[in-house]
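Action item from last week, closing it out:
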Amino acid sequence: MLDEEGYFLIEILIGILLLSLIAMIVLPIIYNSNNNFMKTKIKMDMSFLSETIIENLKGYENIDSLEKYILDIKLEQLIDLLNEDGKVIVKLPLNKKNTTDYPYLVTIIKDDIDIRLWKVSVKVEEHDERKEGVNVSYEAYMRKPRKKL
């Protein structure tokens, strides 16, 4: 007849086996959930940045402060760049040596629709090209801003 200590050892080994099987099933699910959460957070940050840029461009005439910045460029300087005739492409940050301060790269494309109407596209993408291609694009039609006095 088997003694009681042998049964206890087998019960512990079976318990460890079951826990390891559960861990093998649950850990990838937790990892994927965390990964998806981080991607969603990054996309939300990108969306917020692109919407902020478009809203600042639209509301340029109503902004009191001349010290408003979009990444590393003053809003007033950005408007001056975009006021050139035809299609204009501005890639931010302008200072390529200082890109580590900004987690995202921004491309602003302005097309003239009319003398008073612009089509502005803002594309935000991750600075690190090794990551999956997460990017966000927004387009807006806006009235050409007048120069501040």
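Closing note: The radius of gyration is 27 Å.
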